[in-house]
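Something for you to look into today, if you have time. What I am after is a single protein written out in full by you. I want to see for myself how the chain folds. Could you add the entry underneath, on a fresh line?
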Amino acid sequence: MTVISIPNRLRASAALLLLSIPLIALEIIIATRSPLWRLPLRSMGYWSLSFGLICIPLSIWLVSAKKWAFKVTFLLSLLWILASTWATFTTRCPSLGFFTLFLLVYLIVELSWLKTELERSFFDPQLAWYQGLPKPIPGIKCQLSTDDKTLDLRVSRIDLDGVFLFLDSDEPKTLVFLSTFFERRKTGLTLSFKDRQITCEGAPTLTLPTGKGVGMQFLNSSPDLRKEIGDFVEILRGQGYA
């Protein structure tokens, strides 16, 4: 998938991962019981550099919608917790034990936040490797519109923050037409389901490799519009579609 724009909350959650760099330096100080006037600068630098070389690429891959990057982050977090727990018992250092508890809370919050942001409807079409297109929600339609262009699309996922749309046509002209919407910072959206209809604006976040699908994040949602979107989503959930 190709990322067009990175949602701010995903950017923030990925950036929080970089807090691991100063945390490992602090853990070295605690584990070695070093006084402030005689810090183990070489060990701190070595481990901080190592974590930087891991966390920075991981953050980039996460905001690039690489699903495997989250699995790697989870595995490395688990190994860090286990290593810190083992060090706590071998060194019999109470301070390191309290640090490990803090580290556990930090990593749980970080991983939960990352998982939530990566699974937003506009950033995850939940498309299996063997599927050419995501499954549509029956009965719901979406029309993209600008000043002089409109295009009808199917909907595969929707939540309070956005929607994932796709085109079930192979007509070259229609595909080219859809690609023009990817270049815009915001686009009008009209969602329809039975007798309910809502109109709002959205920004493209990422596209499918085939160029036939796009995630749209809702923009400038006023409290009234957000309630309207919420009611719309609840109706779909009541039908077992969202």
User: Anything to note?
Assistant: The two ends are 22 Å apart (CA to CA).
